[in-house]
């Protein structure tokens, strides 16, 4: 029972870091999802929220875990309960900082990459990084097993991470479109957002235009004719309509 209590205390403090930072950023927590090695907080869409805010919210969980891990060292060295909770907190911080989606490290990496490249490409690269890392951890666990050392926690975690990475890679485009579709509702709550202007030659496929969309800004697509004159300007909603046809 004490082991369960210490684990859930560490988990609660980790998630409280996300919640406190989200509250400071005026972003609502919608629900929680229990994962094999922790809990994921689902927040309202980041469609019109700056990437730097998402990075801060993602980093707040591991930071809270690291702060709590230092607590027994400073104030409760003799407490077995707090020492055990601190050990769990340290483990949660380390695992969540791995660049694997949907872990905090994966979210941070995805946000950083999206500042330098197209968000859809950034999500796919992050998914591939997570798949490679989790596969390497799983292989290490298998090799350790053949060498006589059974690491069940590592094997279960890495297998779960492989599955999650494959899902994120497979659904990257769909998730990106869903985020674009949610933007009008978020726009209504935050009436001022940035604008991304995209120039596309007449006849360019909607799929190609979509890869240049920003997930956080309002995308305006200027259609240019062969004479290099502006033909019309389309909203992102109109591009999505063409994509669905």
If you had to describe this structure to a student in words, what would you say it looks like?
- It is a single chain.
- This protein is α+β, with helices and mostly antiparallel strands and 245 residues long.
- Helix content is 63%, strand content 13%.
- The chain is built from ten helices and five strands; from the N terminus they run αββαααααααβαββα.
- The protein has helices spanning 2-24, 51-69, 71-75, 80-96, 104-114, 119-146, 152-170, 172-189, 206-210, 236-244; strands spanning 29-35, 38-43, 195-201, 218-224, 230-235.
- The strands form two sheets. Strands 3-4-5 form a three-stranded mixed sheet.
- Helix 1 (2-24) runs antiparallel to helix 2 (51-69), helix 1 crosses helix 4 (80-96) and helix 2 (51-69) runs antiparallel to helix 5.
- The radius of gyration is 22 Å and the shape is elongated.
- The mean pLDDT is 82.
